[in-house]
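Appendix B. Extra example for self-study. Work through it before the problem class; the solution is given directly after the inputs so you can check yourself.
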Amino acid sequence: MSLIITQRPVANIDSFNVSKWNAAFSPIIYKGQRQDKTVKSVKIYNSSSVKVTWNAEWTKGTSISEIETGTSIYLNSGKYDGVYDVLSVLTDAVILDVNLGVESTGGYLNYVSKRKNYYIAIELYRIVDNEYVKISDAIFRPLPNGQFTFDFSSMLQKHISFQNTFDYDTLNERDLNISGGFNFRVKKVWQGSNNSFSIFSDKDITYYTGSSKQLREQYGTNMAKYVPVTNNVDLFDGDFANGLGWDITSSGSDKVFYKGVFYWMGINGAFVTLVNNRTTLTPGASYVVVIKIKTIQNAKITLVCGTTSGAEITTVGIHKQTIISNGTSFYIKIESTGLGSHKASLEYVQISADVNTHLAKFLMDDFEPTLFAGYPFDLSFIFSDNIQSLELNRVRNFLDINKTAISSSTTALDVSSNTFAVNRLLIEPISSDLPAGTKYIDCYLEVGTDAKETGVYVQGTMDGQVFNAGVEPLQQGSNYDLTIHP
Amino acid sequence: MKITETKRIRYDDLCKDNPIYLSWINTLGGRCYWLFSRNQFISFGTGEETIFENAVIDLENSEAFQEVLSLQAGKGMILGCNNIDRNDIEYIKSILYSPKVQILDNPDTWTTEGCKWTTVIVVRGNFPLIETKEERADISLTIKFPIIQIQTQ
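Solution. Structure tokens for the complete assembly:
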């Protein structure tokens, strides 16, 4: 019994990065499928009927009472696509009054006469000050074959305003008039039903901006072109066991535990190596490895690639190091450093290429805008979930009339409270002048050099465009928690 | 690691007299700005008039055949800039179809008292922009300031 979301308004930027940002003045579409039961097989029973066996997992459910002799059922399996009468009910199968002369496997069936006036109730929520605030109720009715489509764009448009509230005195500030996050929950309703709304999952939060897209644009209605990402290559978050990307070798009497976090306990002189065997690194290319150390005591951690090893890490927290690949995989070595108890634990390891191939655009077509000295001016960019909690810098290169560099300036953005929205970025501060002779400013954003949590990418249900098929993605219940939105 | 494109911004620090500074939202949700200066043409428009016609019998003592029930009036301004290049023409062109165009009311004092933006309406129409053989051209557009509130009768 489930509703399966088969298409979400997301776009894959690369194998690691997904854009969940949509232009609200274009359709924001979810597609899905009602499947009351999944079908294992359809076999010919006699000359005028077939035997439809459903998947075993469903026979234990209470919904068996919804299939009765004399009721009607919609069957979709192979050539069978229609509403048929039930002739008799077996323990795990049903005999239907149809025979097209072929057998098939897979598919699904929906109760027709037992679920009269079936519809999907939706509650649409917007994220405001770290809370879900309901902005719309809606009803969607699936097509006879169970397919349904939600479009949230017009409901979100009502919450977009073009009011300009930027003070032009702050380096960057998020603009919640023109952007934001939303999430929704669903409830299956029919005559006499008593279902609850599904539970929110923060991973399903999707974002909108007050934009409209034109014909033939790459990524269609998705704002992927404007969404900044880091060039992630691989992420190990809670999976350090052998066979999950690491060959783990430890000296004799060490103890190693994997429980989401990789734990190591050693004696004097002991060590453990985690050799990466999953990530493909291009020889000669430079990679940034971010490693989060939860605990460390009388131990040191080094990142080694070939014969080159990075600086020894001996403190807890997030550390960032650059490695140059020599064509072989790199490894992490944890060694004891002295007497006493030797411990260390790793929370995650993230590997990203040092050069980014997806450079997000500012929210402006390919013009060179003009900044008139002494007048308010800003550039807008999407502070996406893909770069959450990353340290960002605004870089300005000042050029003279011949486009020759005069000087450059790098300023750290305020990242603490401005994520998950369109940000306004100040170029010329009110109080200070730009270098004399400036005629052009080349401006871009970069990731800061200080080690900082690089927003461990939340994959979850956003992996690709399909929810885990066959698993009810939106669970029953009414609880939710919001943890990722500051 | 760079995460955005490099945006080249032209920097214009020449002194401008009679500044008219416009801000508008573009189709992507970002903001664009342009400073019109030197000489702009102020106009004034009236219209949308509704007239009531009295059936006058007593001509000798009547005040009028017609009374104005309502009308609209407001200031307008024709803005132009001369000899600008293709980039700037394309950039300014996006004012013409922006749903939100605003004028800065306090260009001299915004740094201390904050920006005061007033929404103006761009007069629609067909605008000749540039000849394909040319690299530079003039551009002109008309904005309407907020209408004057007038009593009706």
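Self-check: The two ends of chain B are 67 Å apart (CA to CA). If your reasoning did not lead you there, revisit section 3.
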